[in-house]
Specification:
The structure is a homodimer.
Chain A lengths: L5 H8 L3 H9 L7 E2 L5 E2 L2 H15 L4 H8 L5 H34 L7 H5 L8 H10 L1 H13 L2 H5 L1 H17 L7 H18 L5 H13 L1 H10 L3 H16 L2
Antiparallel strand pairs in A: 1-2
Helix pairs in contact in A: 1-2, 3-4, 7-8, 10-11, 11-14, 12-13, 12-14
The structure holds a DNA duplex.
Chain lengths: 253, 253
DNA sequence: CTTGCGGTTGACGTAGCGTCAGCTTCTAGC
DNA sequence: GCTAGAAGCTGACGCTACGTCAACCGCAAG
């Protein structure tokens, strides 16, 4: 029976000798025999096994998984099915990521949607905001007036940090959303708790369940708000709305 | 000016203290000051920088790239555009991969397409193959008769290795295709050279340019062949056909 | 004085090899 | 018989972005 050296096998298979040594080291493909000076010699059985390895590797399976399959510990079809699911998840993640990156590019390039700091300006006295009228209609004069007083009483430094605080909360939420957390999960609800406390300071009063849920709904109802949130991450507006509703139901009902 | 400790910053930002230490270690985000026992203290500037970092990180940029951007060495939009291209490429790769995995599952589960070893059986005397008639029509009696003699003269061991040789060539080709190589690239043409030499041994005679190109065309014209190749990797049949045509034009013309 | 909390610095592990560096073994040529 | 070169070998580090110990230190409470 013929045998082949590392270099010969590597050329036949189109891989590097280093790869063959690696597969030996991790026990995935051991040579049929080793001769003088540790020289590796591969036989037919090893070539066939290598072929299986490369076939499965091309499908993106991990080397350890491949080893389990070839050693009979795993069913090929079952392993491939699990792998296909992971691929699908990864593809969806990439899709969302690509969409967010594209949005960010557009936002940086030109017409950027309403920045977060413009909302609270709607509550800032002295500025005529198109959102102030909307706010008075939604939450009433008392709430808006309290908000104006609260923002006026802030130190300039504190006011200056408001945009950053918004950004921080959005980023944390987007990270959770992209990690696959549901809007009702603990980690997400903890962020919403921060968000609620922040709104409480902005409004100068604790939002009622209804007011807070209304604010959440505004994020998906008003295209300007939706654009703002979805520029951070696709679907963030709806995600935040759901999280706010869930939080309000749990803590304000 | 207030400062924050590692734990405080990590809670605010929703990341681990270890991550902050890592960012310090690689020079991406250094604390404003370090006190007793090496305690890290972060100020406003650092918090703002961290926010930028996390924003760009969410978009999938490498930490080194983020550092370059924040230190002014890279244009944000340009970097994002390059990144978007990479994402697109990655997404396409995943799509092809997922399709191939699905095909493989279907193939393993049931109705598998014609296996490579069945072709040469068409040249194997004693077996009546539906492909033999097709072969005689395409290449003539002389070629097919020579092929039958050649295969008969092989040792059983050599015959037994034929399927494996086919598999090997297909895998190498698929790997090149998925690596993005063109069908005329040197690495691909080298594989085709192996393929030609192999066919030469199977046929017992050196295929003419016309015969070899005809064989390549058969791979995309006959659905059974196409299915076989595309089960290895989507688009492999057309890829191999193009590579064979290019090789024949260069070496047999 | 001990315990505990909150911080610190290494150092290893992850996946799949690429890439030296340094040693051995075999063959060809002088 | 000696040597240069080719081809093999065995470590060991590097890459990404941290997670996860282990071991140690300073400070406040009991």
């Amino acid at each position: 029976m013929r045998t082949w050296t590392t270099a010969e096998v590597s050329k036949m298979a189109g891989i590097s000798p280093r790869t063959l040594r690696h597969y030996d080291a991790i026990g995935l493909l051991e040579p049929a025999a080793t001769g003088h000076g540790g020289m590796r010699h591969y036989g037919h059985r090893e070539l066939l096994r290598l072929q299986q390895i490369l076939l499965l590797r091309r499908l993106g399976l991990a080397l350890e998984t491949i080893g389990d399959i070839l050693d009979g510990g795993l069913d090929t079809v079952a392993a491939l099915r699990r792998h296909a699911e992971q691929l699908e998840g990864e593809r969806e993640r990439l899709d969302r990521l690509a969409a967010t990156v594209d949005d960010t590019i557009r936002q940086l390039e030109g017409g950027q949607p309403m920045a977060p700091e413009t909302w609270f300006e709607g509550l800032d006295a002295g500025r005529q905001s198109e959102y102030e009228a909307e706010a008075r209609r939604r939450w009433g004069d008392a709430v808006v007036d309290a908000g104006e007083r609260a923002v006026k009483q802030m130190s300039p430094a504190e006011r200056a940090r408001i945009p950053a605080r918004f950004e921080e909360i959005h980023q944390r939420l987007a990270a959770r959303m992209e990690a696959g957390d549901g809007s009702g999960d603990d980690a997400v609800q903890a962020i919403v708790a921060d968000h609620y406390r922040f709104m409480e300071r902005l409004w100068g009063t604790a939002p009622t369940a209804e007011a807070y849920k209304g604010l959440g709904s505004l994020y998906t109802d008003d295209p300007a708000f939706t654009a703002t949130y979805d520029a951070v991450a696709h679907g963030l507006a709806a995600y935040l709305r759901d999280a706010m509703h869930a939080w309000a139901d749990r803590h304000l009902a």
